[in-house]
Amino acid sequence: MSHYASIFQLRNLQDKVLNILDVNLKYFLTQDENEDLLCSLEYQDMMSILSRKSLCIPCDSLLLDFIIKWANRKSTYNQNNVINLLQNLKLERKFIQKKTDKHLPETGIASKLVLWNRRIRDCARFYYLVEFKLHKSQLRNIEDFVDKGEKSNFYCFSFPDGNYSKVTTLSSNGSLAGTCNANYFRPITQGSYVHQRHGKLIVLGGLEDANKDCTAQRYKPVRKDILVYDIAAKSWLPPTKKSFVPSKHYKRISVESIDASVNDAYVVFKGQHSDNDQTVNMFVDRVNLSDEVPKAQGRVQFVCNLPPDWFTPPCAVMYDERCHLYVCGTKLFARLMVENQAWERLPPPIGDLGDTRVWLCGVSDRVYLLTGKPQSGSSCLTNTIQVFDVEANRWRLVCNTGLRFSPTSFSLHSSSLVVAGWCPARHNFLLVVEPDTGTVTELASGVEGMMSRGIIAHAAEIQSLL
CA 233 to CA 215: how far, in whole Å? Predict the structure, then answer.
């Protein structure tokens, strides 16, 4: 690429391609149809991509797999070139050694590395955008917060300094003009999931505002419209009407868990045939998030049912952006091969997970789990984080947070875990956890209000909002 760019004077085009790869390489690496193209790159091109400070990748293990595949595709390769590529990774030497010794013909490559783990990429400096509602009384358990129709407000936290400020452009009167029919003064309600795609914020699910009964016992229907905010235009767009309608019909239906990739969201729905029905049926739907969806195809498609003898609510879902959907309940962990709907039981997580919903995030070779808020008197005294090594097929404890809290967000960014939660002593807080060492760093705490599940974004993506 760099060779031809020099010959044909296409340096500007090469820079634009590299800028696209900075943000989208993680998606290209998870799509099999891109493997031949990526592995055909020359060494100079590989170094140009992997050495960029602006490269954003959720976990460097994806880059390690990329380098190994690239080396194995070459009939002959220079070992020094492979070492130079590996030195761009923020991974422990023993992890690199384990993978390279297994998948590359030469052994001992990792022993020749000079790792610079303290190297900071630009994507290590990012923003956490979250919706919040002020509430007069802070209750002990955040799940008991009563949503009484407060208007949505937004905070933006900057990393790694932990500073935060209110974002008014998402809830200003100008951005809401002409959209009152979609209740956009409250775009995010209890259970909403926000996804960023191609310069837009997409809001899936959440409880309908039409129901004014605030009691916990009363059933609250799920909002059927998909709400969209255009970041560049600083405006909410007309809603995509009735596009979040489950493939199955039940008298009572709710969202159990959501995870989204670039173009698709996987939703675990929970359905009951009547108000008194004790049988809970859970199933997975795929929601197409593309701008244009053929009418004959439909935006929501049924994937499969969850095995009723395996899972009972609550449960969490994670899509690895390749071919597997991981589901974890309070006692059982399994994955679904999306293409053929085949289920596989996997080793259960370490210890007692309690009775509350766990949180999952990760990439194709690592699945991270954060336990939910421990119940009073539970053997789970504090929240813990553990990781499932897909290749080794076993769990490892990452750390014990030393806190009892209600998680509100859990994500993987730039090889670090970002944890948001609430507890009486600290109110809302943000932590960053290093997966390899288990080091926990508190970035912000003492933030009052009721926060939703937030999203991670780069400065260039949301600069117009700040």
Answer: 38
**Which strands make up the sheet holding 281-288, listed edge to edge?**
252-260, 264-272, 281-288, 300-305
Tell me, what's the pLDDT at 397?
Answer: 95
Q: Is the Cβ–Cβ distance between 279 and 252 less than 8 Å?
A: no
Treating both helix axes as pointing N-terminal to C-terminal, what angle do 79-86 and 61-73 enclose, rounded to 10 degrees?
170
* Tokens encoding 457: 């974004």
Mean pLDDT for all residues in the chain: 83
Put simply, whether the predicted model's pTM sits higher than 0.85 gets the answer yes
**Which residue is it, tokens 């979250």?**
130
Rounded to 10 degrees, the C-alpha dihedral 300/302/307/313 comes to 20
Burial string for 391-421 (b: 16+ CB within 10 Å, else e) reads: eeeebeebbebebbbbbbbbbbbbbbbbbbb
Say if CB 57 and CB 63 are below 8 A apart. yes
How far is the C-alpha of 280 from the C-alpha of 313, rounded, in Å? Answer: 8
Greatest extent of the chain over all pairs of C-alpha atoms, in Å: 73
SS3 227: strand
Q: What is the dihedral of CA 84, 86, 89, 92, to 10 degrees?
A: -130
Q: Exposure of 353 by Cβ count < 10 A (0-12 exposed, 13-18 middle, 19+ buried)?
A: buried
